[in-house]
Specification:
By secondary structure, this protein is an alpha/beta fold. The chain is built from nine helices and six strands; from the N terminus they run αββααβαβααββααα. The radius of gyration is 19 Å and the shape is globular.
Length: 225
């Protein structure tokens, strides 16, 4: 009974906060939006997905990931036995940038507290970031998604320790079969993360003591792509 009561309180508090955010005017994006896209899913979800910003369809309908990328996200979830009602989906920005341009630093700064408050209320155990912007913001590192996708990072979000799991944005895989296969492989590890079966750290490879500087630089550059 206590658990059910906690769940109702969480849902009510999250709904109240969504109503507050619906009138947000912290940044310039409020001037051109149709509506705030707060988030959708299970307030008690153990798994939370965080994307970049709403697109055209999201701005019109008020829900994240409702376009083609959203349909692919649904497929990927189904592939691991989940659906939208089992997870929570949100974006860094709650308003659509004009022309779907990249979020600006001041817009992220103005909006990020909304996302962190969502995390405090939902208390997910695994946060899967979709794409570069979400990954860099929540990891606090500047590594590109190509370098860190599928690599679990332990961090503190919303005042709790979580497993941060970077993923390619589904939009990037819509027309690229190789990237789609990578996304499917990365998604296949999510059930184990939800069971706290975190993969063992990668073995440390001992590098030669004498290593040409040019070679090291080349390998480091390759790691950025």
């Amino acid at each position: 009974m206590a658990a059910a009561s906690d769940s109702l309180t969480r849902q009510s508090t999250l709904s109240d906060y969504a109503a507050q955010v619906a009138g947000c005017t912290r940044c310039r994006l409020a001037q051109g939006r149709t509506q705030v896209v707060f988030g959708v899913g299970d307030p008690d979800a153990d798994l939370m997905f965080v994307g970049e910003a709403p697109g055209f369809h999201e701005d019109q309908q008020g829900f994240p990931f409702v376009g083609q990328a959203g349909k692919l996200l649904d497929r990927l979830l189904a592939g691991i036995g989940l659906e939208r009602g089992d997870v929570y989906i949100a974006n860094i920005l709650k308003c659509r940038p004009p022309g779907n341009r990249d979020p600006q630093p001041d817009e992220i700064e103005a909006c990020e507290s909304h996302l962190f408050r969502q995390m405090e209320l939902i208390e997910p155990r695994v946060v899967a970031t979709l794409g570069n912007f979400a990954t860099k913001l929540l990891s606090g590192k500047q590594h590109g998604i190509t370098r860190v996708h599928g690599v679990v990072q332990e961090t503190t979000l919303g005042g709790r320790r979580v497993a941060l799991y970077p993923l390619y944005h589904p939009a990037a895989a819509l027309y690229t079969p190789a990237m789609l296969r990578t996304l499917e492989e990365d998604f296949s590890r999510i059930p184990a993360l939800l069971e706290h079966e975190l993969p063992a750290p990668a073995p440390v490879i001992q590098l030669p003591v004498r290593r040409p500087l040019a070679t090291a630089t080349a390998q480091e550059q390759l790691g950025l792509f």
